[in-house]
Amino acid sequence: MRYGIFSDIHSNLEALEVVLHAYEQASIDKYLCVGDVVGYAANPKECIEKVKVLAAVTVAGNHDWASVDLFPLDYFNPRAAKAVIWTKTRLDAQERCFLESLKLTFTNNDLTLVHGTLDDPALFNYLTGIHSASPTFELLNSSLCFVGHTHVPGIFIQGKAKRILYFSGSALELKKNNKYIVNVGSVGQPRDGNPAASYCIYDTDKKTVCIKRIDYDFKSAGKKIIAAGLPGFLAERLAVGR
Ligand code: ZN
């Protein structure tokens, strides 16, 4: 089974289309989305439509839930809050229904999905380092957990002795006795200094996880953000991946 796992699209249709096109050449059997389909950029409706059709499972992100009043706006910085409020005005009943239906976690025989952390997933805490990775490893029943939320791709590895290591590389062969937390990065608003869209492929037969990057037209996405009356900073940051 080859999974296509992606996260944090944030209404960036230009980035999503390029990622989905790249996936088409990668023989994906099943698509999974780790949340934040909406928020920040100008195409929430189009991104919901595409993810809804494609992804077998989507878990809830903080922007998804905030856009349907399931998560308070107090947790957002002013520019992010402005984008949530704008997004709300765009959604129709069906799109709201889709976002409301999203659950916080998902587990099957191969993997677990959560937007932030497995400890208190409804708080959408940031899994930013070894310390914050520890409770998620404790609660993880499968050997592999995929997360998003920080928009920084990378892999946390817990070996037999429970020591946690961070691997910032992009491809990894999975070892039997290890547990892994894979941050798949962000399709629509990368924050690791690389503006290219990030997406992940997990091959259960080959036992490999690969995080890939692909350039997209961030200028067009940025122009739409400005035209929609959203904060200019949200367009500028796409060009620098911050
Ligand atoms: Zn996000």
What brief labels describe this structure?
Purple Acid Phosphatase, chain A, domain 2, binds zinc ion, six-stranded mixed beta sheet, globular, 242 residues, alpha/beta
Number of strands: 12
Based on secondary structure, the structural category is alpha/beta
Instruction: Specify the CATH architecture.
Output: 4-Layer Sandwich
| Number of contiguous helices | 8
Helix and strand run: EHEHEHHHEEHEEEEEEEHH
Give the CA-based shape: globular
Helical residue percent?
25-40%
Q: What's the main sheet like?
A: 6 strands, mixed
Strand content range? 15-25%
Oligomerization category of the chains in this entry: single chain
Q: What is the spatial order of strands in the main beta sheet?
A: 3-2-1-11-12-9
Bound molecules: zinc ion
Total individual domains: 1
| CATH class membership | Alpha Beta
Tell me the radius of gyration. 17 Å
CATH homologous superfamily name?
A: Metallo-dependent phosphatases
> Whole-number average pLDDT?
97
Can I get a quick summary?
It is built from eight helices and twelve strands. The chain has helices at 13-24, 44-54, 62-66, 78-90, 93-101, 130-139, 218-227, 232-240, and strands at 2-6, 30-33, 57-58, 105-107, 112-114, 144-147, 154-158, 164-167, 171-173, 179-183, 197-203, 208-214.
